[in-house]
Specification:
By secondary structure, this protein is an alpha/beta fold. The protein is built from 8 helices and 11 strands. It is globular, with a radius of gyration of 20 Å. Bound molecules: adenosine-2'-5'-diphosphate.
């Protein structure tokens, strides 16, 4: 366990350090509904790109006992396994117990991070294939932000397709900036190979605001439009592997479509053709 004292500490009072505390190093706001932040990484924490951990803050004191308890939620780790820091991408829910507070964190503040990573969106849960698909809605992009920066993604596949369906254009910014950033990332270009990012096909769509590509990815696949745009055939169990992370209706609809394509769901203990995680909302 790492214990740190808050930077904003009032030195006249003894302020107990949070359990499993990490210090916030960067905060970026994208829309009134979305933000990302980075924090220090526990020295002992090892995880696989695509996994999630519990993070949070101390809750308000109990009205009668005055006791405070940690308020924790599962968050996909958006940074890759090799990163010195941790990154998270979060929704802001105005009356959400955690995110209504978390959205106000600043550099130097502390967050609680339980160092017990788990999850199914990992390379180990998929059989070898040629083309890897990432399907995300909203903050479901987070685990793919990790996997898109993971060298194994490009070592294992010839092609990486990332689809991101959001309501509004501004919700695409985090993902778009991240993918653009890969082109200039000297470290990754050196480690994985110059121009590794050319394997990526990015397919952003919006449903409630005008953008170059409109519609739900599920509908665009059913009509065949998405495959035509991307220049690839529909998913096939011999070549394609997929990871899904979005809202519940999206996950279920895609699962049903994949079963129609003949793909089987995999797990850490039994790798197969696709894996699903739900986006963790407040
Ligand atoms: P829509 O605007 O048509 O509901 P949310 O913010 O509600 O989690 O939604 C994020 C994005 O996921 C929205 O663009 C939404 O489209 C889309 N979406 C919701 N349900 C599905 C589904 N079953 N299949 C595909 N996309 C979906």
């Amino acid at each position: 366990m790492t214990e740190m004292t808050p930077v904003t500490q009032d030195k006249t009072k003894a302020v107990p350090a949070l359990p499993d505390a990490q210090t916030v190093t960067e905060v970026k706001h994208y829309t009134d509904r979305l933000f990302s932040f980075r924090c220090t990484r526990p020295a002992s924490l090892r995880f696989r790109s695509g996994e999630f951990v519990m993070i949070g803050l101390m809750g308000d004191p109990h009205p009668e006992t005055g006791k405070v308890k940690p308020l924790l939620r599962a968050y996909s780790i958006a940074s890759p396994s090799w990163d010195e820091e941790m990154e998270f991408y979060s929704i802001k829910v105005p009356d959400g117990p955690l995110t209504s507070k978390l959205q106000h964190i600043k550099v130097g503040d502390e967050v609680i991070l339980r160092p017990k990573p788990v999850g199914t969106l990992v390379h180990d849960a998929l059989l070898p294939g040629k083309r890897l698909w990432f399907f995300a809605t909203g903050t479901g992009f987070a685990p793919f932000a990790s996997l898109l920066r993971e060298p194994q993604t490009y070592e294992d596949y010839d092609e990486v397709i990332i689809t991101h369906t959001c309501r509004e254009v501004g919700e695409l910014t985090y993902g778009r900036d991240l993918i653009e950033g890969l082109k200039q990332d000297e470290l990754l270009n050196e480690v994985i190979g110059e121009g590794f990012w050319k394997k990526i096909k990015y397919y952003p769509t919006t449903t409630r605001e005008e953008s170059p590509r409109m519609g739900r990815i599920t509908d665009l696949m059913k009509s065949g439009e998405a495959f035509a745009d991307l220049g690839v055939p529909p998913l096939n169990k011999d070549t394609d592997r997929a990871m899904i992370c979005g809202n519940m209706a999206f996950n279920l609809e895609l699962k049903a479509m994949f079963e129609d394509y003949g793909l089987e769901e995999g797990a850490n203990s039994k790798p197969a053709h696709y894996v699903v995680e739900k986006a963790f909302l407040d």
